[in-house]
Amino acid sequence: MLLSLSFSFLHHFLFSMENKYLNILSFCFSNTICGLLIVSWLARNIIYSNGLRTALAWRRKTRMKKNQDAENKMSLLDLPDLTLDCILEKLSPSELCAMSCVCSELRDRCVSDHLWKKHMEKKWGRLMGDAAVKEWKTHVATLMSCLRNSNPSSSRSNTQKWSLRVAANLKPFSWLKTNHGCYNRCSSSSSPIDSLMYWYSNLESGKFWFPAQVYNRENGHVGFMMSCYDAKVRYDYKTDTFQARYSAHGRRAAEENVTWQRLRPAMIETESRDLHVSDSLQGLRPGDHFEIQWRRTKEFPYGWWFGVVGHLQNCVGEENCRCISDENVVMEFRQFRTESPWKTTVLNRKEHRETGNEVGGFYGGVKKLCTEEEVSTWKRLWPEQVLD
């Protein structure tokens, strides 16, 4: 009896629930909008559940593959220090600058002085004499002093940051835009202002004027043929030549397109207005090549002029020449005609100081040319015609 009642109740309950849901479904399907929403919801849930599982599986697989590839690949920075340095030493200056833009660790390596030392020596070593080095050190000291004075309470690390900022603002790497095309990327990663890389970049970009001596100044002006004068020069990377500024009494001359072959280092021991101490007069003999200081008036700076030691007038000839034992020595300038007042001059070996007058100019110190390279450099500059 009890079981019969239970089945009767359950049947009544299911019938009532069935009627209720059938009514709801009947309403929903009779209403087009609700039907579409229900179908869309059911489809989205089915697709999303399957798609999500597929996407997660693909993502896990991809991540595992990337991790596996990363483990199998070696980064440039994973190389031993010695190997990495050997690679960096093979790079050109512009390539080193480009490499310094990759990351901070490579930048610290690429600005190292030991990498830039060979580049400095290869391109600029011949012109960076003692006078140019002194000028650069003074320039760096001035910049560093300005940095310290502008921020006196800063630490060393802050000073280094400031030096990087100043280097970036001065834009010494403009030559890279032509040579390598990476200037826009690298201008913000400038090297410290006391580094060889910064010195090299200032030379290349023409930001640094340095002292040098110029052969046959002012485009080979006839009044300066076979001479060499002090000047301040800077490099023009577009033409691979130099600009020069000469200091003279009453005017300042300038010259462009000065080639590498016409330059040599300036002498720090003798400036353009100082008399050179002649320490080679005693040993000069006919045929020796020399340079002598000469200036038109005492208000002008000295220039160095090329000449050859000649024979005295009373010399009996090459075989019995005794000019080496005479107290006087003949200095010949064979680029001039015989009748020219600047063709020859005679100096006293023991008591020579500055000699001359307002007509023929003033002769200063003498130095003997001891190497064939020095002599051949002068001979390459010999004028095509004899000078008056």
Automatic annotation (TrEMBL):
Entry keyword Cell inner membrane: no
Annotated ranges, domain F-box: 73-119
InterPro entries (UniProt xref): F-box-like_dom_sf, F-box_dom
One Pfam family of this chain: F-box
Keyword DNA-binding: no
Transmembrane annotation, as ranges: 21-43
Domain of life where this protein originates: Eukaryota
Alphabetized UniProt keyword annotations: Membrane, Transmembrane, Transmembrane helix
Protein name: F-box domain-containing protein
Native source species: Eruca vesicaria subsp. sativa
